[in-house]
Amino acid sequence: MLTLGEYQDFKIDRDTAPGLFLKHESGAEVLLPNKYKPDEFEIGDDIKAFIYLDHEERPVATTLTPKVKLDEFAVLECVDANNYGAFLDWGLEKHLFVPFAEQAYKMEVGGKYLIFCYLDEESQRLVASSKVNHFVDNSVVTVNEFDEVDLIVTNKTELGYNMIINDIHLGLLYHDEVFENYRTGDQLKGYIKKIRKDNKIDITLSKFGYKSIEPNAQIVLDRLSQHDGFLPLHDKSNPNEIHDTLKMSKKAFKKAIGSLYKEKKILILKDKGIKLK
Predict the structure, then answer these.
(1) N or C: less crowded end of the chain, CB within 10 Å?
(2) For residues 231, 208, 199 and 71, what is the CA-based torsion angle, rounded to 10 degrees?
(3) Could you read off the pLDDT of 137-183 as tens digits, one per residue?
(4) Segment 84-140, tens digit of pLDDT
């Protein structure tokens, strides 16, 4: 069976004028046009190819690498638009269609948009939607508190940043956890801070407990060494100043210098800064 929007394994079945015919283990066949033929091959060779619909709505194989696959999120550029929808560059010859009804707001040529690629059940075509919140689900949470997760920024709110978690769930990174501006589509690593009773998920970018102290302490030591053993940072320093210097939160900084002080690696000079012993 051919699955649109996915890579599948095939065997090269025969070489014809339009290209190679590939055979799937299910018995299904698909054409790999001549422009995608490998330089060297033999009949019976294994080959992996991506399946999508060509301009005549026929399944076709390609060895090109698309920028997004079925059931994935990605940021893509709009290259054409009309009254029916928009067309995005996803790295293949035929552009990815976004119906007008699936645009969170009207797409414009040259704009870049976070989208979700899915199979439209009615037309049986691969399409995209920028209404990405429709494709996340928190009804059954598949992550646990303290888990490391993959994040995609969706939008900024009064509370913080909404983020897609592991391509499945929606979570929130609060403003007091943020020390730089993020753009829609930015990809980050983060951690599950709290799962609420209504399955809303709070996110943090900092590791928990002792795991966060060691790497942050090393950052402080490295920066001290680069600045002749002294930094004008202390527990009353402005959080933005700490982040600009060390790229960490004030809370993480205080944990790090507390650890270093206990290990007798630094001196804490009250209201002046920290110094290597």
Answers:
(1) N
(2) 80
(3) 999 999 998 899 999 999 999 999 999 999 999 999 998 878 778 99
(4) 999 999 999 999 999 999 999 999 999 999 999 999 999 999 999 999 999 999 999
Identical fold between 7-62 and 73-133: yes
Q: How far apart are CA 266 and CA 91, in angstroms?
A: 52
Query: pTM here?
Result: 0.74
Looking at 1.10.260.40, 3.40.30.10, 1.10.10.10, 3.80.30.20, the CATH number of the domain 209-276 comes to: 1.10.10.10
- Residue 43 CB partners (closer than 8 Å, separation 6+): 12, 13, 14, 15
Backbone torsions φ then ψ of 111, nearest 5 degrees: -80, 155
- Tokens describing residue 52: 């999508």
CB contact at 8 A, 21 and 14: yes
